[in-house]
Design a protein that fits this description.
Number of strands: 10
Largest sheet: 7 strands, mixed
Distance between the termini: 14 Å
Helix content: 10-25%
Number of domains: 1
Order of helices and strands: EHEEEEEHEEEE
Radius of gyration: 13 Å
Strand content: 35-45%
Structural class: alpha+beta
């Protein structure tokens, strides 16, 4: 499990509480091919096509590309998590730490 602290001044979007509030409404479509999924385990997933690219829990977020290392996947991860996900020399990073699928990041 990786622990990444929030960067000072970094824009936080769609935290667990924000997704919980959104789930209480009927709006589940977040963008083109992107949906909010209410999970049986108490988490909230961000689904892009058929892959849950981010799963928010109260204390952690799980990231997964499903093998799709695309610009759109990275863009949605940046939009629906509080992290800075970027690519350098064909390698992905999350707040300067190497990315790997099913990465679990604790959030405070």
């Amino acid at each position: 499990m990786t622990t990444i602290t929030k960067q000072e001044g970094f824009k936080i979007m769609n935290t667990y509480n924000e997704l919980h509030e959104l789930a209480q409404t009927r709006k589940r479509k977040l963008g083109n091919n992107t949906y909010l999924v209410v999970r049986d385990d108490g988490g909230y997933g961000i689904r892009l096509h058929d892959t849950e690219i981010a799963i928010h829990y109260k204390d952690k977020i799980v990231l997964n590309t499903g093998g799709w290392y695309s610009h759109t996947t990275k863009s949605r991860m940046n939009e629906y998590t509080p992290f800075n996900i970027y690519q350098k020399n064909w390698e992905w990073f999350v707040n300067d730490k190497p990315y790997k699928d099913n990465m679990i990041i604790e959030v405070a």
